[in-house]
Design brief:
The complex is a heterodimer of chains A (319) and B (274). By secondary structure, chain A is α/β, with parallel strands linked by helices. Chain A has eleven helices and 15 strands. Chain A folds into two domains: 3-227, P-loop containing nucleotide triphosphate hydrolases (Rossmann fold, 3-Layer(aba) Sandwich), CATH 3.40.50.300; 231-302, Alpha-Beta Plaits (2-Layer Sandwich). Helix content of chain B is 80%, strand content 0%. The relative contact order of chain B is 0.14. Classes of the chains: A alpha/beta (319), B mainly alpha (274). Chain A binds chain B through residues 51, 54-58, 75-77, 79-80, 84, 86, 88-94, 103-104, 106-108, 110, 152, and chain B through 1, 4-5, 7-8, 12, 15-16, 19-20, 118-120, 122-123, 125-130, 265-266, 269-270.
């Protein structure tokens, strides 16, 4: 991928707090127009990374850019094109949702008041808060506050939306609403969001990075991560005597291993392959060459993100 | 865009204060007492009684004796006129100075420590505005509030004094040059000093109440002035008023440099998450 295709690009980005490394040499690459899940357990360094990207705190070492602009030197310019929702957003309680957006809009727009009001109404509509636009924020539920947070982050039509744990504090209904809003916003912005809720990532993200103890331990498209984290594996449930077929498959150059388990007269093969195209074209045919065998299930093994996450995080645990 | 963003912050800060009764109520009561109630009571007293017979007036009478002969106060023959002129045109100055001091101190404590306490400062820190402009906007809100109220109080005080004393003196006795120095030189400088003193404090405390209480220390020099005036130790003539302003200005500049250095996103963000 060309460097210009990355909205966020960091090189060795690190941050120490009183000798404790919160972020360690992070090389993060966030593709344009993606919904990028920044995943990690609590305390992994997600929020610190976001603060570094926004210029709210300075890196101890390393560098980073957003839209090709340096995150330290050009942070004001960057912020004009970025929308940000904090992990636990705090609003001026005496203001209404509309007043909050009006206040925020004045940092970005010169235009006629009518145009700004139109933009505010559109944004409230987008996050489903039109009917509560003129109520004081003090009366808002957690989900409504979070949607207002997204609205204020979206008021300037940002090219990049950074959301820090947007659904962490919400009940299932609130989470669903926030994820729906994120999906709606993808057509306008690249969305970079941190979370530790794996279901949310699997549902809405197209790319993901996993951090643990401040280190980047995985970075891939969600599809690659779910299918190819341990090499491609095909899974087959077979009925019948399959020793000959097994030997035939094992002889193939593109097969790196076969794991066989049997239960209740049914055999399951996990075939690890090195050439996915060859496996797709030949594997099933080679097995079925043995006419006495019946295949009851065939497919590429897919992992749940939770499995991958636990493997990576537990594998990388430092004690 | 810079000015528009700064104006948005100033407007927001002033609205936050005006929406909070706990903040503005004391700020209304203080001027009301010093600008309307006490002068009115005093003038009515002077109209209805022989003021030299009032308990505790000795201190003022002794001060009158110490005043240089060329002063305007000696042009009046009646003791009530002399006392009224002295009190209204000189002795009220320290009381009046409490107004910009308290307003600046309270509003800036609310503006800085209040935002820190409510954790709303973060939303300003990631706005596309430079630290310098953000700092200036946060300073200007309390300064504008203080200046507007001070000038308004000055006008009200002038109306009360001139309207109620015209029949006593047969002329307008307010304002004199010393009051113009107080309102347009000393008060703005005192406001700036109070604001930066509070910015300095706010960076070191957790919330508004703490900043508010510590910020009240700003009245101590004014109390000293008041005592000096009442006892005749120091008469606030024009030169002293000007010099007092100059000293405050120098101290304010030192505070501006000191607080300005700590007003960085990095430091403010760290103070926000502590």
């Amino acid at each position: 991928m060309n460097t210009n295709e990355f909205v966020i690009n960091t090189q060795g980005l690190s941050k120490d707090y009183n000798g404790v490394q919160a972020v360690k040499s992070l090389d993060l690459k966030v593709p344009k127009n993606s919904i990028f899940g920044f995943l990690g357990p609590n305390g992994a360094g997600k929020t610190t990374t976001i603060k570094l990207l926004l210029g709210l705190t300075r890196p101890t070492s390393g560098s980073g850019s957003i839209f090709g602009q340096d995150i330290v030197k050009d942070s004001i310019g960057i912020r004009t094109r970025v929308g940000y929702l904090a992990q636990d957003p705090h609003f001026y309680g005496h203001m209404t949702a509309r007043e909050t957006l009006r206040f925020k809009a004045r940092f970005y727009y010169h235009g006629p008041a009518a145009e700004i009001e139109k933009r505010i109404s559109e944004t409230l509509e987008l996050v489903g808060l039109s009917d509560k636009a003129d109520r004081p924020i003090n009366s808002f539920s957690g989900g409504e506050r979070q949607r207002l947070g997204i609205a204020q982050a979206q008021i300037n039509y940002p090219d990049l939306l950074i959301l820090d744990e947007p659904a962490a504090l919400l009940d299932p209904m609130g989470r669903r609403d926030v994820l729906e809003v994120m999906e709606r916003l993808q057509k306008y912005s690249t969305i970079f969001y941190s979370t530790h809720i794996l279901d949310d990532v699997q549902r809405v993200s197209d790319s993901v990075a996993i951090v643990n103890y401040g280190e980047l331990v995985a970075q891939a498209s969600i599809q690659d991560l779910l299918t190819g984290s341990q090499g491609t594996i095909y899974s087959l449930d077979i009925e019948g005597e399959a020793n000959q077929a097994r030997a035939r498959i094992a002889d193939q150059a593109w097969v790196s291993g076969i794991n066989v388990t049997s239960a209740k007269g049914q055999t399951t093969w996990q075939v690890s392959v090195t050439d996915d195209e060859a496996a797709k074209a030949q594997l099933l045919r080679l097995v079925l060459a043995d006419e006495q065998l019946t295949i009851t299930r065939f497919g590429r093994k897919t992992y749940k993100l939770e499995e991958i996450f636990m493997n990576i995080v537990q594998g990388g645990n430092h004690g | 865009m810079r000015m528009q963003a700064m104006a948005a912050i100033i407007k927001k800060d002033i609205k936050s204060i005006s929406d909070n009764i706990q903040i503005w109520l004391p700020l209304i009561i203080l001027p009301l007492v010093f600008v309307i109630i006490i002068p009115t009571v005093l003038i009515i007293l002077a109209k209805t009684q022989n003021i030299s017979a009032v308990n505790g007036i000795d201190l003022i009478l002794k001060t009158l004796d110490k005043l240089p002969a060329h002063m305007e106060v000696h042009t009046f023959s009646d003791i009530n006129q002399k006392v009224l002129f002295l009190v209204l045109n000189f002795m009220f100055i320290p009381f009046f100075l409490l107004i910009p001091a308290m307003i600046s101190s309270t509003t800036s404590a609310y503006s800085f420590a209040g935002e820190k306490e409510k954790k709303t400062l973060e939303s300003l820190l990631y706005a596309p505005i430079s630290e310098k402009d953000l700092f200036a906007a946060k300073i200007l809100g309390p300064f504008i509030a203080s200046t507007v109220v001070t000038i308004f109080c000055f006008i009200c005080y002038g109306i009360v004094v001139d309207v109620l004393t015209y029949d006593i003196f047969g002329k307008l006795i307010f304002p004199r040059l010393n009051w113009l120095i107080v309102v347009f030189w000393l008060s703005p400088i005192l406001s700036i000093f109070a604001i930066f003193f509070n910015v300095y404090i706010s960076a070191r405390v957790k919330g508004f109440q703490e900043a508010y209480q510590l910020g009240a220390l700003i009245v101590l020099p004014i109390v000293v002035l008041l005592y000096s005036q009442l006892t005749g130790l120091l008469l606030l003539n024009n030169i002293i008023l000007f010099l007092f302003g100059l000293v405050l200005l120098i101290v304010s500049v030192i505070l501006i440099v000191k607080t300005g250095k700590s007003f960085t996103r990095n430091k403010l963000f760290l103070s926000q998450i502590k």
